[in-house]
Amino acid sequence: MTVSVPLDERIHRKSYDADAVAPLRGVRVLDLSRLVAGNMVTHVLADFGAEVVKIEDTKRHDDLRNWRVEGISTFWKVYARNKKSVTLDYRSDRGRELLGKLVESAAVLVENFIPGKLEAYGLSPEWLHSINPKLIIVRVSGWGQDGPFNHKPGFGTLVEAMSGFAAMNGFADREPLLPPLALADMIAGLSGAAALMIALREVEVNGGKGQIIDLSLFEPMLSVLGPQAANYLLTGKVAARMGSRSTIASPRNVYRCRDGNYISLSASTQTMAEKLFESIGRPELSKDPRFATNADRLRNDDVLDAIVAEFMRQRDCAEIIEHFDKAGVTVGIVADAAQLLSHPYVCERESIVALPDSQVGELPMHNVTPRLSGTPGSIRSPAPEVGEHTAEILRSVGVGKDEVDALRQKGIV
At what angle do helices 270-279 and 317-327 cross, to 10 degrees? Predict the structure, then answer.
């Protein structure tokens, strides 16, 4: 395939480091999940050295593979890096036995079936813990394992709507706005990875037993939306959508520059607001009773926003950034993908790296995050092909090559 846009030469080219030693080495994770949230949980673990074994049904593979751009499974390539793929019909008796063997050697199992499905397949937490009492089971679902919605499919879109996010996102004179990415799933995945490490510490350090992590998409999403319930209780009002403005600090917005680029600004402290007024040539605004304090500025936000917007409108983006950087005012370009890939911050910090890819030559993706000084993560291998590691993983639990071949003939692997 021909890549339509050349990659900026400043983007760091990186090779897969198969021999890298990472802090979660020796931790085997069985990932039965599909799509985003479960893959995000295990993506974090895999980047820090866990052996993440994607167990994909022999007939239905992870749907994340089907999210394609120009025929390329970009989501899969990014979020399945460092993982291994095993195909297994775990609904069959022999497949269930093989899964049991893998459970014996695992520290973690992640699944995201509709609540009750795992039990229906004969893979209940009780059965799993009878094989491995120290197993941590992460159960991802839209609405949790109990409650009135537990039987419902739980796509992140519904959670982003019901959690209150969409109602507060967008502009007052338009419809509520959903995010253009799998936000609820990603937040749940990060929350799940943190919960999993807490449970793993309980086992490994405190000598505790394995446990079940009931990870809904809804509650992590709710937890990052701020004190919305408390604010409603105190005011009796549902906050109106404000676009890019803020209910807690002013000025804060996205402004159009003369050259058509957009710039973001946040003057969320008194000192920053005063620096802003000085830098736009309006120091008197600091003494103006309409803008003297943050509370004053919020009450007169429309007037102040128009003053700042006019300053931005008369200058190009690069000029504005240079001007405000010298003044110590917090601004930044609203970067699209093209601008991001050539931005000096991204290039110098190696926030995005380009890795070898069998289909397109090289593929840019985010680097390992967060950054640890003593035990950093690493990108050791590309996302696996379907069933690429079936023989390797089954061999690790005593299943020989001849039996693997026979299992393939029967469609069990």
Answer: 120
Catalytic option among 185, 288, 357, 405: 185
Look up residue 18 and give its two tokens: 């198969």
Mean pLDDT by 10 residues, the chain (413 residues): 77 93 95 97 98 96 95 96 97 96 98 95 97 98 94 90 96 95 97 98 96 98 94 92 92 97 95 97 97 96 97 97 96 94 94 95 96 96 97 96 94 95
Q: Is 62 a catalytic residue?
A: no
